[in-house]
Amino acid sequence: MSDVSAPRLKPCPICGKLAVTQFRPFCSKHCADVDLNRWLSGVYSVPAVEDDDRSEEGEAPEDQRD
User: Any idea what the CATH number is for the domain that residue 18 is in?
Assistant: First the structure.
């Protein structure tokens, strides 16, 4: 039987080596820093849908004003 208390480590998402508990889910500080840099530089991004109902100034359209 396997030990239930030990976390099952997966491969590092950057290089594919086995992850280390200290840097989980990465294998090293280097890979963690590579991932952080990708987020900060915009390589990773969450897609957003612009709402066409609002004007560029952030005001509600005239037909929706009180």
Answer: 3.30.50.10
